């Protein structure tokens, strides 16, 4: 028997049995209290749809839609994952999947871009954080679920899709044609920017991110005779990923103490993550670059290093996604993605809908010159998302020339240029003070 029919029968039996057993119950605030009136309304509506709707709809489709709507109404990040969506999620967290290469959210019935992923078709086509996707291949995206939109955008590598984009600062919508590809996420990139100053870019937090980062850091050391005067950790436009990956990355720079903790209603959601004594680059200054596209796991890392005074956070206020989603597999190979907790920085700060405020605000000059009337730089924040839980300028890499030397990277990236200047100043200060 399909799970949806089982659910229907359980609901009906629950309703009938509870109508008598709990009719006089006064425990209205108890989480186990059965909402009899609401269940009655649900069954009446279900019956009306079955009998009066213009077309015949089977029980499974009706109940699946009910489940989707129930989760979608909670917050922008909870969702029902059917078999295909659950499989795609598993592929995405492993670091390789097919599609366009964008992290998306849900806002007012439309799909909004949180951040394009580095070196993907979406980024190369000019998709920007904050873009509102209003049509998918000419069909309206209004009202479709986030999972449905993702399913449409993913497809056979080499096939095309046309997105109709509404962008703040533009007078009217415009189309962007993108060729789908197999998205292989390169989580970590590292290089020496100037003599004895390292640069590491983390584009997302996946299963092997911390391991890749450790190898990259060791490689930077070996290339520079085991000596570095400073390190830039670039988390701009990093939409996040796995909580454990963020903890492991933070642990590479913190020798002891709390990294992050979570608080929720159930016991399993109350967790604390502490650093282990294996910190790399113990005495080397670190600057972490963030912006409005830095979300979730990126904010965990930035918040931990900021609270431990281990790094200077530079750039723009982050996205503000401070909630934890738990994947709850069901017995029919589907799953629920359910928000189960909020996470907090070591000092007890919740960044949900507020973000991490940098120690040094440095905006991207090139972007502001072109778009000086856009105060928020067009980046959607967690607080902008419809139904968010209570508590700026992306670097447009698609317009950059391919980096062929460390000096050209600085010349085309003002925020990075300023980060290196800060590290140089700290290096001089440390040298004078011993």
By DSSP (H or I, 4+ residues per run), the number of helices equals: 12
| Total beta strands | 19
- Would you identify the regions where 5 or more consecutive residues have pLDDT less than 50? 15-28, 367-376, 392-407
Instruction: State the CATH superfamily name of the largest domain.
Output: 2-enoyl-CoA Hydratase, Chain A, domain 1
Q: Span from first to last CA?
A: 73 Å
The percentage of residues in β strands lies in: 15-25%
CATH fold annotation of the largest domain: 2-enoyl-CoA Hydratase, Chain A, domain 1
CATH architecture classification name of the largest domain: Alpha-Beta Complex
- Give the overall pLDDT as a whole number: 83
Q: Which CATH class of the largest domain is shown?
A: Alpha Beta
Number of folding domains? 3
Largest sheet: 6 strands, antiparallel
| Structural classification | alpha+beta
Question: Any key phrases for this structure?
Answer:
12 helices; six-stranded antiparallel sheet; Pdz3 Domain; about 425 residues; six-stranded mixed sheet
Note down, in words, how this protein is organized:
The chain is an alpha+beta fold and 434 residues long. The chain has 3 domains: 3-72, no CATH class; 96-184, PDZ domain (Pdz3 Domain, Roll); 188-433, 2-enoyl-CoA Hydratase, Chain A, domain 1 (Alpha-Beta Complex), CATH 3.90.226.10. It has helices at residues 3-21, 36-52, 59-72, 83-94, 121-125, 146-153, 209-223, 243-251, 297-307, 365-370, 406-411, 414-433; strands at residues 79-81, 96-99, 102-107, 110-116, 132-136, 139-140, 160-166, 174-179, 181-184, 188-194, 197-202, 230-234, 258-264, 271-274, 286-290, 312-315, 323-329, 335-344, 360-361. Strands 3, 4, 5, 6, 7 and 8 form a 6-stranded antiparallel beta sheet that branches. A hairpin with a 5-residue loop joins strand 17 and strand 18 (335-344). It is globular. It starts with a helix and ends with a helix. The relative contact order is 0.12. The model is unreliable at 15-28, 367-376 and 392-407 (pLDDT under 50).
């Amino acid at each position: 028997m399909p799970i949806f029919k089982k659910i229907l029968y359980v609901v009906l039996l629950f309703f009938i049995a509870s109508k008598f057993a709990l009719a006089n119950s006064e425990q209205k605030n108890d989480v186990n209290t059965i909402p009899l009136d609401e269940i009655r309304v649900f069954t009446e509506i279900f019956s009306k749809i079955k009998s009066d709707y213009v077309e015949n709809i089977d029980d499974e489709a009706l109940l699946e839609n009910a489940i989707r709507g129930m989760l979608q109404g909670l917050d922008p990040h909870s969702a029902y994952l059917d078999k295909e969506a659950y499989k795609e999620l598993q592929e995405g967290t492993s670091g390789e999947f097919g599609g366009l290469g964008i992290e998306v959210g849900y806002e007012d019935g439309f799909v909004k871009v949180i951040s394009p992923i580095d070196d993907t078709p979406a980024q190369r086509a000019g998709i920007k954080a904050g873009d509102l996707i209003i049509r998918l291949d000419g069909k309206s995206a209004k009202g479709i679920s986030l999972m449905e939109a993702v399913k449409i955008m993913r497809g056979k590598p080499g096939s095309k899709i046309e997105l109709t984009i509404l962008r703040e600062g533009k007078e009217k919508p415009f189309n962007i044609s993108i060729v789908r590809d197999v998205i292989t996420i390169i989580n970590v990139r590292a290089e020496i920017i100037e003599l004895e100053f390292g640069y590491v870019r983390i584009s997302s937090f996946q299963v092997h991110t911390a391991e890749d980062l450790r190898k990259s850091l060791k490689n930077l050391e070996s290339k520079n005779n085991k000596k570095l005067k400073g390190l830039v950790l670039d988390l701009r436009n990093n939409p996040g990923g796995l909580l454990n990956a963020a903890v492991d990355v933070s642990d590479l720079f913190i020798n002891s103490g709390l990294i992050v903790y979570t608080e929720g209603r159930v016991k399993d959601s109350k967790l604390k993550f502490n650093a282990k004594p294996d910190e790399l680059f113990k005495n080397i200054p670190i600057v972490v670059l963030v912006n409005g596209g830095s979300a979730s796991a990126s904010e965990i890392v930035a918040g931990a290093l900021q609270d431990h005074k281990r790094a200077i956070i530079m750039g723009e206020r982050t996205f503000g996604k401070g909630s934890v989603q738990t994947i709850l597999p069901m017995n029919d190979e589907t799953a629920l993605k359910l928000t189960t907790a909020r996470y907090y920085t070591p000092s007890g700060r919740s960044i949900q809908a507020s973000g991490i405020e940098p120690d040094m605000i440095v905006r991207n000059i090139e972007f502001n010159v072109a778009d000086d009337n856009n105060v928020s730089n067009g980046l959607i924040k967690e607080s902008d998302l419809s139904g968010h839980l209570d508590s700026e300028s992306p670097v447009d890499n698609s317009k950059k020339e391919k980096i062929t030397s460390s000096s050209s990277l600085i010349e085309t990236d003002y925020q990075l240029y300023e980060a290196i200047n800060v590290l140089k100043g700290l290096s001089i200060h440390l040298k004078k003070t011993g």
